[in-house]
Structures
1.
Amino acid sequence: MNLLDWIVLLGTMVGIAAYGAWRTRHTDHLDTYLKGSKTTGWFTIGLSVMATQASAITFLSIPGQGFESGLGFVQNYFGLPLALIIVCAVFLPIYRRLGVYTAYEYLGQRFDQKTRLLGAGLFLLQRGLAAGVTIYAPAIILSAVLGWRLDLTIIGTGLLVIVYTVTGGSAAVSLTQKWQMAVIFGGMVAAFFVVLARLPAGLGFGGAAHLAGALGKLEAVDFSFDPNQRYTLWSGLCGGLFLSLSYFGTDQSQVQRYIGGASLREGRLGLVFNALLKIPMQFCILLLGVLVFVFYQFQPAPVFYNQAEWARHAHGPQAATFRALEEKHATLHAAKQGKIAAWREARTRHDAAAERAARAELAAAQQATDAVRTEARQALTAADPRAKIKDSDYVFIGFIVGQLPHGLVGLLIAVMIAAALGSKASELNALGATSTIDLWRHFRPLAVRDEARNVRVAKWFTAGWGLFAIGFALFAGFSENLIEAINILGSLFYGVVLGLFLTAFFLRRVGGSAVFWGAVAAQALVIVLYCTLSISYLWYNLIGCAACMLIALLLQAALPKRLAV
Amino acid sequence: MTPDPDNDESPGLPGFRTWRGVYWFVFGAFVLVVAGLALFSRVFA
C-alpha cells in the first residue's frame, strides 16, 4: 500500500465514522438511540439490514469460495427471500404494534419474564461470544497479507466502531452503514471490471465464463436429493429458510435495524429490498471469485495462497519438500495453460469433437493441479499440525494487493474494513440494547422513567461490549477451529430461539412455563444430538425449532393448568 | 396473540394494492432468479 491507498482507506473509513458520530451527536432520546431516527426511509433500512449481514468475511471468504468451489454456495441463500416474506407479514407488524425495543421484550409480553430472560440470555451468550470473532477474523487476514500488526488492527477497528456506535446509537449505525455500503458496492464493481480488464485479450466475459464452466465452476443450482452434497437447492431452501427466519426474525442485531423507521411500510420495503437483491448480490461476489480463478489460469499461480503461512514453513527443515511441491505445481500449471490454449483453439474452429477432447484433457489437468494443492496442505500439516491450511480466504485479498492499481487497493481494503465496521456496529448496538432493556431495566424497574439515565446506561453497555469484543479478540488466541466452533454454537441456539417466537405467534394456547421448559429441553436435545450425530449443523435450526414447539405443546397439555401458564 | 393481517397498510407502490401482491412479486422474482441461475449454469457448462 502506498500513500494514495492510505489516503483513500483512512479518508473513507474515518470520514464516514466521524460523519456518523457528528450527525447523531445529540441523540438523547432512548427511542432514537435504540431504534434509530423516526424519519428513516426504506432505502436506509434496507442497506442497514444488508450491511449487518455482510461482514468482512463475506467479502474475503465468498470470492475465495467461488474460486475454490464455484457458484454452488449461492444455494445457501435460497431460503432467505421466503424467510423475509414471513418476517414482513408476521414478525414486523407485531414488533411495531407493541412498540418494543427488543425482540425479547415481546416474549415477556406474550409469555412471562423468565421466557424473556431466556431469549435475551441466549442472544447475549451467542452474540457475546461471536463479538470477538467479528473483529478478529478479518484482522488476522488483513494483518497477514498487508503486514499490519494484528493487535493494532483489532484495536484500531474496534475503537473506531465503538466511538460512533456509542455516540449516536442506532441512528449512527444506520447512517454510517449507508455510506459504508456505498464504498462496498463501489469497490466490488471496480474490482469486477479490473478482473475483466486483466483477462487475456479476446477472452472477454463470455470466454471466461465458458472456461470456468468447462472447469466445473459454474454449477449454481444442484437439483439432486443427495444428502452428501453440501449445497443443493433443497438444503438451501429448507435449512436456509429456518436459519434466515431465525436470524432476521429473532436476532436483535437484525430486528433493531428494521423496527424503527418512519412507518411499518418503510420497514417492510427495506426487507423486500433485501429479499430481491441478496441472491443476485451473493451471486456477483461468487462470480468475482470465479473470474479471479480464470485470471490465475493465465498467470503464474502460487501452490498455496496464504503466502505468509507458506513462507513461514518453506524455509524450515521440510524446505526440500516445499520446493518440490512448488516446482511440481508450476509444471502442471504451465501444462494446463497449454490445454486451455488447445481448448480455445478448438472452440474458435467450431470443432465440436476436438473441443470435447480438449475439455476432457483440461479437466484432467485441473484435477492434477488440485491434487498438488492438496499435497501442499498435507505438507503444511506435517510440518506444523497447527498450520492454517485453508487458503481460499487469502485468494481475493492476494489478488487485490498484487494486481490492482494503487488507490483501488486502498478502496478495496476499505471495503473489507467498512464491512467489518458495519456488522460490528449492529452487533454492539444490539448487545447494548438487550443488556439495557431486557436485563438492566428488568432488575431496576423504577429506572424506566428516567430517560436520560436509560440512554447513559445503554451507552455504557454498548462501550462495555465493544471493549469486551476487543479484549476477547486480543487474548482469546483463536484458532481456525475455534472460529468455526463459535459459528456453529450460534446455529445451535438459533433454532430454539425461533421455536420460542413461532410458539408465541402461532400456538396461542401455550403459556409461559410450558414454552420455557420446552425451550430448555429442546436446547438440551440439540446439544446432545450435536455431540452424537454428524449431520450438517444447518439442520439443527429445524430440529431445535420443531422440538421447542412440540415439547411446549406436550407440556401445555400435560401440566396442571395453574403450572402451565 | 395472532399476527395482523398483512394488508393493514397500503404498500404505496405502483401496480400493487396489497402487501400480499408484493409478497407474490418477491416470490415470483425468486423463482425467476433460481431459473436464471440454472439457465446460466447450463449455457456455460
2.
Amino acid sequence: VTRQVELPQGALEMLILKSISLGPLHGYGILLRIQQISNERLEILQGSFYTAIYRLERRGWIKGEWGESENNRRARFYALTRAGTRQLKAETVRWTDMAAVVASILDKKADDL
Amino acid sequence: MNLIDTLRALWRSIVPRHPSDVEEELRSHLGAYQEDLMRHGLSAEEAQRKARIDLGQAATQNETYRDAIGLRPFDELGGDIRYGLRALRRNPGFATVAILSLALGIGATVAMFSLIYAVLLHPFPYADAPRIMNPVCVDEQHPDETRWFATDKRQFETLSEARSIESVLGFAESNMEITGGAIPEDVLGTYLTGNAGSFFGVRALLGRGIEPFDDQGSGQHVAVLNYKFWQRHYGGDPHVIGRTLELDHVPYTIVGVMPRSFAFNDTTGVGDVYLPRILLHDSSNPPVISPYIPWIKLKPHIAPAAADAEINAIVRQFAKENPRHFPEQWHLQLQPIIVPFQQNTARTLYLLLAGVLLLLIIGCANCTILLLARGRARQHELAVRSAIGASRWRIVRQLLVEAVVISFTGAILGVAASYWLAKLPMQLSPASFPQESIIRINLPILAFSVGLALLSGLLFGLLPALRLSHPDIAGALPTRMHGLTAAPAKRRWSALIAAQVALTLLLMATAGTAIRNFLHLAQVPLGYKPNHVMQVGIVMPFRNARQWDSIRLRDARTAYIEQIRQKVAAVPGVRSLSVGVNVAPPYSGAPRNSVSTSQAATLRRSRRAFISSARSTSPPSRFHCAAVASGTQRRMRAAISSLSSTRASPAATGRSPIPSAASFASPACAPSARSTRSPRRAPDGAKSSASSATRATTVWIDLSHPLSTSRTQRSWCLTPNSSSAPRVSRSPICMMSVRQSPPSHPINKSPTGPSISTKPSRATHNSAASVSSPSSSASSPPWRFCSRWWASSAWSPTASRSALRSSASAWPLAHRARMLCGLPDASRSSAQPSASFWDSPSTRF
C-alpha cells in the first residue's frame, strides 16, 4: 500500500517545472505525468493546479502555446522558458539542500545529540 | 534579473490572457479528463459530473485566473465603484446635495491652492528662480526700508567674479518714447546685459531674446518686445519680427517677442521693450555712471550665509568707493525675488486657504451626516451582505469606496469651478500678484485635487462606514427596521450637528478676517478724496550737458512750471491745481532716493486704494484718444500745447513772450535729428519756429495719471532708487494735480486747441489718433503727451452725477487743493509755489 503525500507550499510549482522540462505538455498531461512519476502517491487538487500554472506563466517561467494533443484535441501546451530553466535549477538545489539538512537532523539518534 | 522578472510579471497583469482563452483551456482539460474517466468505466454523465466537481466550471475559470495573477483587488474595487455610482444614481437627491457641498469646498480649496501655487510657490518662469537673488541694502536705522543699489561697469564685473555667484544680470530702466508716429507713446525700456538669455532661461515666443552678441562692441540696435506691449502696440502681429521700432528717434530692429509669462521685472516696473545694455550709454547723455542694477543667481548648493558673507564684503568695498550711494549703517541682504510678493500677500492667501479648508471640512461634515442618514436606510442591505459572508472589512471598504466616488465627483465639479474661482482674487486685486503668475490647471494642482478628494472622501466616509458595518448594528436589523433609535446614536447625532455649527461659526470668523484683510489693502485712508483728480506728470529728460545747464537754475524752472500751472489753472473745468514733485499724497515729497521696496509695496496699495474708491461699477478702462478728447483733458491739452507753441516762437504767435521759456528754447538745446511728425505742416513762414520747437523737445507731459489708475499703468515713482539714480532719463519731474469740476458745466471748445481725430483701428489704436495743430499755431507742440490714456469712471463723463456733486460739495475747494499735495492752494497763491517744494532735496535735480 502506498501512502499519499501532501505537498508543502511551493512544491507544486517546482514539480510542474520539472515535468515540462522534458518537453512541452498541456495541463492535463502535466497532471498525469506528475502522478505517473510519483507512482500515484501524489494526489493533486485539480482546482489549485491551474492557479499554480497561471502564477508560473505570470512569472514568465513557463510559456503556453496552443497545439494539437495526442487524441486530436486542441490544448494549450506549456514549455519552460529560459528563466524557467534557471528557476528549476535553483529550486532543485535549494530543495535538495534543505531536504538533506532536514533529513540529516531527523536521522540523528538520541545518542548522537 | 529580478527586476526583469518583476517587470514581466507586471506586464502580464496589465495585459492578461483573454477570458475565452482561459475558458477554452479548461474546457479542453475537462474534455480530456472526462474521456479518461469514461475509459475507466464511468458513464458519460458521471464522468462529466466528476470532472466538474474536480476542476470547477469553465465559465468561472477566468476569475480564478485573475485571482492567480493578482488582479482580484482591482476587480473588486471596480465593482465597488460601479456599485457606488449605481447607488448615487438611485438616490439623486442625496447625490446632488452631497456632491455640491463637496464641490464647493474642494473647488474653493483647489482655487486657493492654485493661486498660492501660482503666486507664491512657482510664480516666475525663470530657470532656477529660487536661486535668483535680489541684493538689497537694509538701512539699519530703518530696517523696513530696503534699497537697491546700482553698480558701475567695473563693480559689476567684480561682482560677477564672486565665487558663490553663477551669473549676474545687470539691468537698468529708462523711460522712452515711441517716436515716428502721430502721437508719441511712452514706454519703459529695460536694458539687459547680454547674458539675459542664459540667466533667465526663458525662450522667446517669437524670434529671440537679448543675446551676448547684441551686447558687444557698440551694440546692436535691437529690441525684444514684452508680450503685453506686443499685444497692445502691435495687436499681437506675428510678423512683427524684423520691423523697426523708433524709440527716442533711434530706430531699433525688433528681433523677438517674449512669452506672456515673462514680465521682467515686476518690482520696479515691467519693461515694454528690452534692449541690449550696451546701448544705454548711446541713448543717454550725459552717460549714466552706474548703469547696472544687479540680480544675482547663486551657484547651486551654496549656503545662503556663505554667499551673504562674500557678497557683503564685495559690496562694502563698493560702499567705500561711493559712500554717497549707501546709508550710514547698512547691511546687505540677498533677497529671493519672491520676497516682495510674499510680504504683500502670503499672509492673506494662507488665511484665505485656511478659510476655504474650513469650508471643505464643513462640506465633509455635511456628507458624513448625509451618509449616516442614508446608512440607516441601507442597514437592511448591509445586514444581508454580512449574513451571506461579507467580512466587516469588505463592507467598510465598500462604504469608503462609495464615499470616495462622491468626493471625486465633487472634485471634478470643483476643479472645473476652481478654474474661474482662482482668477477672482487676481481680478479683484491685480497689483498684489506677480504679473508673471498665470493661473492654470497643471500637474501639481491636479495631484493636489486628487489627493484632496481622496482625503475628504476618507474623512467623511470613515465614521459612517465604521458605524454601519458594526456587527451589532447589522445583527440588530429587525428592531432597527422599525425605527427605534438608541440613545447613544442620538447623542452622536447632536454632537455632529453641534460640531458643524461650531465649524460654521469658525469659518465665518476666518472668512471675515481674511476678506477684511484683503479689502484693507484697498482701503488705506488717504486723507483726501481722489475723485476727479488727475495727475499730470511733466518729465523733462535732458539729453546733453548744455541742456542740463540751461535749466539748472532753480528760478528758471520755477517760472517755467509756474507758467504751465497758470495755463492749466485757466482751463475751464479745472477747479484747482497744485504742484508737487512726487506722486499723489501721502507719499509725495518723499526723497526719491529713499523710496524703498517696502514703500513701493505701500504705494502700490495706495494706488489700489485709488482704484477702489474712484471706481463706480466698471473697472478703469482704457480710453482711446477720441474718448478723451471731449471735456477737460482735451482743453488742458490745448492749453498746454498753446503754451508750448508760445514758448517755441513767441514772435510768430504775437503773444507776449513768456520770460522763462527762453531758457528752455535756448540754443543750449542742441539741434538733434528729432522731428515730431505732424500731419499738417506749418506754413513756410513758421517753419523755422517749428524746427526750433522741434529742437526744444526737452519737455514732455505725461497726462497719463488720473489719480485712479490701474495696475498696467506703470508708476514711475516706484523705483527703489538708489541715489545713483539708475533710471536715466527721467530726472526732473514736476507733478501737477488737477481737480476737475463736475462735468455738468457746459463745455466750450477751446479755440486754440488741437483737434483730435481718430481712425478706429484695432491693431494700432495708439498711433491711429493723430493730432493736428491748429492752423494759427505754427508748430507741432514740443510737449509730449503721453498717449497712454487711462481714465477712471470718476473722471470720465459717464460718471454718476450725484457722486460728482457730493464729492464736490463735501470738500471746499481750497481745502481740497491743499490736501492734494500738501501745498498751499495753487489757485489762490498764484505767484510762487511754496519754498518747501523747490527746496525739497529731490528737486535739486
